[in-house]
Amino acid sequence: MAGLQNILSQITLILRLMSKKVLIFSLNYYPRFTGGAEVAIKEITDRISPEEMEFHMVTLRFDSNLPRTELVGNITVHRIGPAVKNPTISDLRKFPLHFNKHLYQFLAAAKALSLHKQIQFDATWAMMAHSCAVPAGIFKTLKPDVPYLLTLQEGDPPENIERLARPVWPLFKRGFTTADAMQPISNFLLAWGLRMGFKGVSKVIPNAVDTAHFSYPYAVEEINRIKKALGKNEGDIFVVTTSRLVHKNGIDIVIRALPLLPENVFFLIYGIGPEEDKYRKLAEEIGVAARTRFMGQIEHDEMPLMLKACDIFARPSRSEGMGNSFIEAMAADLPVIATQVGGIADFLFDSEKNTDKDATGWAVEMESEEEIARAIRDIMENPAKAEKVVANAKAMVLSNYDWSQITSDMKKLLIGIMK
């Protein structure tokens, strides 16, 4: 028996030595300050066997409590850069952490080259052009034989990202032009990548959601328990958003829509961010503070049940690379109100604006609280229509936005550039 175990251990070791080694550039990773990009990395890498691919990552440390190197899921995470003890999200904008994004572009390249001497990577993968394209482009320039995949995951307007990149513009541009493959999460970001000079193989592969998690059929009693805990009375309508509280997500527009709606319509905001104080002040100024509830950060495990206790999802983004929150809400059977900016146009179709497609939501113009209010009223007053749109959206999500399918597509793309 011991001999068989030794043989199996040796086979496992050989398989690991044969596995392709991929280095990921990512500004941030678990367990602190995670967002859609970090979720995408983890969902994909957790579904790929270590015997097939061995993942490493160079990322910022931020928190001095975190080890400089550790295994997180299927990724060996190498942390670099200044760190302080137990930083808050506001600390990221203060000395010394506010230098991190700038330092990362060069420290990450140096760390990657050092790791390559030991590990000999078969490919590199930059998660987002902003800050990660520079070190990936430097590495590719110095190690041209190592294939390089660029993922475009940005939610901010491309012109804003380009403006921030001006101090290192030649290096930033090289992050696009030296890439062997590009994986934008939307057609909007594909167009940006091509404008930036990318010439290689490109494939739009969107983010996804854990469809089983968000579409889980909770018992009515369990949903009612959450409604009661939230103080939801008979006849109340809960409009909800799960968003970082930043300007681009348009949370203020929904707050401004509340005075145009009946008193039984409330707005629940799950998320944190630098604009929270501004939004609280706005709600006070226009007299809807009692109907605007700041719920704070929510754990991913809790989110589906909280969504199902609500009635409508709204996020009138000013810019969006794609927007996982919309897909999650659709999987959880909520009618979705959104703009059609950026990548949202790939999956949110309106019955009036997109007559050639089955409606999957309510599209509103940017900066229009009137249209937000009109869409909420339409959902409240036309339950049969809302039910049909919700069914269309959920069918689309289950068909096109499951992580298992996305992982398969990403694995094929990575293997393709390493051949």
Overview of this structure, please?
It is a single chain. The strands form two sheets. Strands 3-4-2-1-5-6-7-8 form an eight-stranded mixed β-sheet, with helices on both faces. The chain has a six-stranded parallel β-sheet with strand order 11-10-9-12-13-14, sandwiched between helices. It has two domains: 2-208 and 403-418, Rossmann fold (3-Layer(aba) Sandwich); 211-400, Rossmann fold (3-Layer(aba) Sandwich). The chain has 419 residues and is of the alpha/beta class. The protein is built from 16 helices and 14 strands. Helix 4 (133-142) links the parallel strand 5 (123-127) and strand 6. The two termini are 38 Å apart. The longest helix is centred in the N-terminal third of the chain and has 20 residues, at 100-119.
Q: Characteristics of this structure?
A:
2 domains, 14 strands, 16 helices, alpha/beta, Rossmann fold, 6-stranded parallel sheet, 419 residues, 8-stranded mixed sheet
- According to DSSP, the number of beta strands is 14
Termini separation: 38 Å
**CATH topology-level fold name of the largest domain:** Rossmann fold
Largest beta-sheet details: 8 strands, mixed
Low confidence ranges = 10-17
H-E string: HEHEEEHEHEHHEHEHHEHEHEHEHEEHHH
What is the C-level CATH assignment of the largest domain?
Answer: Alpha Beta
Strand order of the largest sheet: 3-4-2-1-5-6-7-8
Number of domains: 2
Give the name of the CATH superfamily of the largest domain: Glycogen Phosphorylase B
Shape: globular
Helix content: 40-55%
Average pLDDT over all residues: 94
What is the helix tally?
A: 16
Rg (CA only): 23 Å
Structural class: alpha/beta
